Amino acid sequence: MNENPTALKKLFALGIKLAAWGFFCISMLFFLCVGLMIYKGGIWAYIIFASKPIPDFLGGVGALLAWYVLLYGIHNTRNEWKIFLARSVFLSLSLVFSLFAGEVILRKVYSMKRDANSMESFRAARKNGKPIPIHSTHPLATIVQPSDNKNLVFELQPRLDTEFGHKRVRTNAEGMREDRDYAVQAPAGTVRIVGIGDSGMFGWDVEQDETYLGVLEANLNGRKDGTSYEVLNFGVPGYNTQLEVEMLRYRGLKYKPDIVIVGWCENDFNLPYFLLEKENYRKWNKSYLYLLMFKRTINRTEVAPGFVMRDLREYDNDSVVPELISGMEIEGVGKAIKELLELGKQNGFKVLFFGPMKETIIALCRKLGMPYACTYEMIPDNKYPADYMVHYMHPKKEGHRVLAEYLEQDLVRRGWIKPAIKHGN
Hints:
This protein is α/β, with parallel strands linked by helices. The protein has 2 domains: 5-115, no CATH class; 147-273 and 320-413, SGNH hydrolase (Rossmann fold), CATH 3.40.50.1110. The chain contains 13 helices and 14 strands. α1 runs antiparallel to α2 and α10 (329-347) crosses α11. The N and C termini lie far apart (127 Å).
C-alpha cells in the first residue's frame, strides 16, 4: 500500500516542531536552575537540584540554539543565517561586556568600603573618640578594637562597661578585664601575678569577679598573711600563644610581674580567632561577581567587603601576614615559649603554663623546660560535677573557682608563693 507523501511530511514537520519545543523547555529548565542558584546564593536542592551555574547556563544556551535551529534555522536562507550569527555575536559580546563591567564596578565598591573600614580609619576614629566602624554579628566585635601594635592585631577596648553574653564586662585603661587601674610600680610587700591567655582566662560567660584569676586574687588576699597580692588579667578572647606573649611584651612587662600565668587552650596552636583579612581587589584570580551571585554563604561573617572574619579559624595563607602564620603549630608555639622563658630571665619573673593540656603541648613544655600545670593531671574528671566544665575552654563559674584553688595549690607547691597560715583552734 502506497503511503501519502504529504502526510509523512506533515508528521515529520510535527516531530521537528515537538523536538524544537522540547529543547525550548529544556533550556528554560537550565535557566531556571541558574536563577534558583542566584536566588539561593548556592546549591538549590528542593525540587530541582542545581549546583553548577556555568554548565547549566551553557546547557540552556545550547538547548535554546537547538530550538531555534529546528524551528527556524532549517528554513533560513544564507543571508538570514548571517544576520542571526551577527546578532548572536553582538549579544554574546554585550553579555561579556556587562559581566566585565559588573565585576569592575563591584570591585570598585568593595575597594571603597574596604578603604573606609581600613585599620588606619579604625585607629583615627579611636583617637578622635568616635565609634569604631566594625559591623559584625560576632560578639567579639563589640568589645575589641584593632591594636596599634600590628603584631597583636586586636585587643580589648579600654574603659568598657557593657553587657557581653548576658554578663557584665568592665575593662580598665589598659584594656584588662579589671575594675581598677594598677600603678606601674607595685606597692611594697606585694606579689604581682600577670595572666596572659584567651577567652578561658578572660572569663567567657562569667561575671567580672568569677574568673579564676579574680578568684585567685580574692583567695590569696583573704589569707591576711601580711603579703598583698595583685593578679592582673590580660586575657583576650581569641588570642593564641604568640599574641599572648606579645601582649605581655607590649603591655604587661612594665608592671614588673613576679609570676606570669599562661592560660593554655588547645586551639592556641592555631591562628587568632578574630582575624581581619584584607582582600586585594586588583587580583583577577577569582570573580567577585560570581561569588556574589552563586557563593553567598552564612559561614563567614562579613565585617566589611575586603575585611572578613573567619569562623573556626579558617584562613587563607595568601591573606594572612607571614608573622602570624609563623606563630602557628608546634613550631610557632615553641618559638613563643622560648621567647617567654627568655623574657622571664631578663625581667626576673617565673612562668607557668596552666590549663587542660594534652600530650603535644606537655611534650613541648618538657622539651623546652617550661613549667606547666595540667588540669587533666591535677583534677580528676569525676571529682566535680560535669556542668562545672573544669577542663573545657570556657568553664562555668564553679569551674573557675576550682581552677583558682588548684592554681593556688600548685604555686604554693612550687614555692613561688607562701603557703597559707594555718590557725589553731
